Amino acid sequence: MALIEIENLSVTFTTAGRKVRAVQDVSFKVEAQQSFGLVGESGSGKSTILRAICGMAPITGGQIRIDGKPLPTPRGRAFAAQVQMVFQDPYASLHPRHTVDRVLSEPLAIHGQGGSDAKIEQALIDVGLPPAFRFRYPHQLSGGQRQRVAIARALMLQPQILLLDEPTSALDASVQAETLNLLSRLRAERGLTFVMVSHDLAVIDHMCDRVLVMQNGQAVEELSREALASAAMTTPYARALFAASADRMLEG
Amino acid sequence: MTTLNAWLLDPNPKSRLQSRAGQTWLSWLRFRRNPLAMIGLGISVALILMSIFAPLLAPYDPIAQSLPDRLLPPLTPGHWMGTDDFGRDIYSRILYGSRITLDIVLLVILTAPVVGLIIGTVAGYFGGWVDAVLMRITDIFLAFPKLILALALVAVLGPGMVNAVLAIAVTSWPPYARVARAETLTVRNSDYIAATRLQGASSLRLIWGHVMPMCLPSVIIRVTLYMAGVILTAAGLGFLGLGVQPPLPEWGLMISAGRKFLFEQWWVATMPGLAIFVVSLGFNLLGDGLRDVLDPRSAGK
Amino acid sequence: MTLLSVKNLRVTFDTETGPVQAVRGVSFDLGRERLGIVGESGSGKTMTGRAVLRLIRAPGRIEADAMTFEGQDLMAASEPDLRALRGRRIAMVMQDPKFSLNPVMKVGAQLMEGLRQRDHATRAEARAKAIAALEAVQIRDPERVMEAYPHELSGGMGQRVMIAMMLIPDPDLLIADEPTSALDVTVQAEVLNILDDLVKTRGMGLIFISHDLRLVARFCDRVLVMYKGKIVEELAAKDLLQAKHPYTQGLLNCLPRIGGSRGALPALDRNADWAR
Ligand SMILES: Nc1ncnc2c1ncn2[C@@H]1O[C@H](COP(=O)(O)OP(=O)(O)OP(=O)(O)O)[C@@H](O)[C@H]1O
Ligand SMILES: Nc1ncnc2c1ncn2[C@@H]1O[C@H](COP(=O)(O)OP(=O)(O)OP(=O)(O)O)[C@@H](O)[C@H]1O
Ligand SMILES: [Mg+2]
Ligand SMILES: [Mg+2]
User: How many Å lie between the centroid of ligand 4 and the Cα of residue C198?
Assistant: First the structure.
């Protein structure tokens, strides 16, 4: 049985009387310890799928199951300990007036877990930040360092599943490499399951075992890593996406 | 001194205390560069010192009358600000009056902004009908001219300092609620709030720990800018005989008393008027300076 | 013909812990072409762009031996002169659309604001122009987006709204700071086409700041590579992927490739000599 099962998921926002069908009838499965990619057109509902899993988007149809069990609404603490998310923009995802220490201790406080000092220092070491950074504020950190703090926060509760919304698109090439290496290492060490959104097919190819291509709220085509690398896609949109990424090929 | 400075500016603080102290110290260094703000701070500190040490500084009793010394002009030996129509030394009365002014200001600060902050953040955070109800109430309060509403309240409650403070507080929370709500609206959809919610945080924790710290700077700035308004409203109530009661040396009351002989003995009304002016100006300058230091937008990345 | 000429530009922040030099002596000339600026995070790309518009806030300071836009001295220009230039003749797409858009104002109102105030367009005209601008950047449902608040947009839509907003007044010089970092490759290609078209047909100058080296190599004419506030290398964009400088090579080596190995990506070894 797959760890994450999404069946005919639909999300519809209603604003000012209009209906926005952000996600329509999307289904996919992610096995435990797999890394699953989401790519596709801007505005096609990739972030919305991640938010729907977290209970932050209005689900109007379909089902999301984790470990075979449908998710409760609201999601609750048990869910928080199982699934965490890393946001795209490291400049927007850390509270500007909280120190790294506060950011990392908050999840422990919410869940009434003790031993925070040791855990925070360990968490910083795990993401490759010097413990001296513990009492810094976000504005004293670079983009890559902030993203590491955000990843450390997501890992504080030892979740099984990490949802990553374009974790490196705001980062430069060298910091992207550091962050991707960090994520791969943590996944191997802890047996994490990833669902990862990215625009860069090279990043998806580097990180993911399977990938779902989306357009305009709908799933277009699901590909394995091998199919992606050998350009074995069948739908025109997936092809176009691949063709536009020609400069990202090995020997490109 | 240099080790303390190094400790404060350490980019890798060793403790929560050190990092907080370091941030505060940096803000102070930034604040210090603004001369006008420093003047404002100086005036505010002077007001506080004046009120604490009034008994030591004042040459005369502020209330005891001395009819032979009636209406002495300024620069009379022993009465450099002159005396009023009961022969009381105006300088001493202004010193003691600073206590009343400060009391009123402090009491208003402890009530109005707190109420406004809570109402504003709750309305902004929850949105929907909570927001609609709370903001309509705010609008109703805003729709009345402040002084008139305060007058009506004092008329019902009866004159006196506590009632005057209450009246001012009741009329002055709506702007804080507005400011706090506007600030809340800009932060409530931010990723850091979403990330914390995802950790399972309750609304109370989010409002208290995440939203309020973001609203606080604008509210504090508003408090200092509005302090002048509080002093003036208090003085207005005093002037109309609805605030602090004679013979207490409240500045507004003193102006009101001096109004009768404004043309012949101008100093009786002018001296307390100057005091109100200087203190109001001081708070305004302080507020402007704080805006540069505290405003999250000007702090940048 | 040069549109913008910058000689020895320096940006210094006088912070409480001492001066921080964000840009240290940058010089370049820009014609009606596509100039790329690449470099790692914190290398001063954004500050260079903002300095051209004199948009550096205190405690930042700008110094330059010369900075001219179509013969007009930008260093000597008064604040009203600069305001007349900004937005209208020189536009800048800011790096962080979420920060640059007003979170409590509808997107349409923000797009129409400039048209209504600066160009005194009627409501209907402004609306039509705004919708056309959104369509140009490939927004699927412009009518809805006009009525949406910024947080109701996806990351890439916010970015495209910013581009649309900056292109509405037809600037002569566009400074685009990471304008397409949140766009997928097909939409990105469309947006780049618009920019390309403006450079080719209208003779707009474009400064394209990005950390995507492969994109810059493909799209720009010329590239400046920045490190710690200095230009370490200037070269034709088509040569970027074969750059000689070890820093540029290091950045290129960090990139993953489709079909490449899944082992750890190489890290960048910084060399103190590059900053001199
Ligand atoms: N809170 C909301 N209210 C209304 N519409 C929304 C809201 N959030 C998202 N949408 C709409 O849902 C659609 C999908 O958005 P989503 O953020 O999932 O896109 P995305 O695939 O992540 O795109 P990008 O790659 O640009 O980030 C968009 O059309 C967006 O405008
Ligand atoms: N207010 C400030 N005070 C001190 N230093 C600052 C300030 N603002 C920016 N800097 C410094 O200026 C340098 C250049 O920053 P800039 O934003 O131009 O980098 P960038 O190349 O655009 O990086 P990125 O790719 O992350 O956007 C950085 O090292 C930064 O620390
Ligand atoms: Mg998205
Ligand atoms: Mg930048």
Answer: 24
Q: What is the pTM of this model?
A: 0.86
> Is the shortest distance between the CB of A20 and ligand 1 below 6 Å?
yes
Instruction: Report, at the CATH architecture level, how domain B75-299 is classified.
Output: Orthogonal Bundle (1.10)
Give nearest CA residue, ligand 1 atom 28.
A43
Residue C176's pLDDT is: 93
pLDDT digits (tens, 9 = 90+) for B239-280: 787 777 777 888 888 888 888 887 888 888 888 888 888 988
ipTM above 0.95, yes or no: no
For C125-143, how does the pLDDT look when each residue is reduced to its tens digit (9 = 90+)? Answer: 899 999 999 998 888 889 9
> What residue type is C246 in one-letter code?
P
Please give the Cα distance from A72 to A108 (Å, whole number).
22
Q: Is C182 on the interface with A (CB under 8 A)?
A: yes
**A183: closest CA of chain B, how far (Å):** 18
Please enumerate residues of B whose Cβ is less than 8 A from a Cβ of A: 11-16, 18-19, 23, 190-192, 194-201, 205, 209-210, 213-214, 296, 299-301
Ligand 2 atom 19 nearest Cα: C42
Name residues whose C-beta falls within 8 Å of residue C109's C-beta, 6 or more positions apart in sequence.
Answer: none
Question: Domain residues for A145?
Answer: 4-251
Test the A interface: residue of C16, C255, C258, C269 with most A CBs within 10 Å: C258
Q: What is the CA radius of gyration of chain A?
A: 18
Among A50, A73, A97, the residue to mutate for chain B (most B Cβ within 10 A): A97
Where do the domains of chain B lie? 75-299
AA identity, residue C188:
Q
Positions of chain B with pLDDT under 70: 1, 295-301
Helix (H) or strand (E) holding B7: helix B2-9
Least confident of B230-234, C31-35, C107-111, C272-276: C272-276
Question: What's the number of domains chain A is made of?
Answer: 1
DSSP single-letter state for residue A111:
T
Q: Which helix (H) or strand (E) holds B49?
A: helix B35-57
Helix (H, G, I), strand (E, B) or coil at A39: strand
First to last CA, chain A: 39
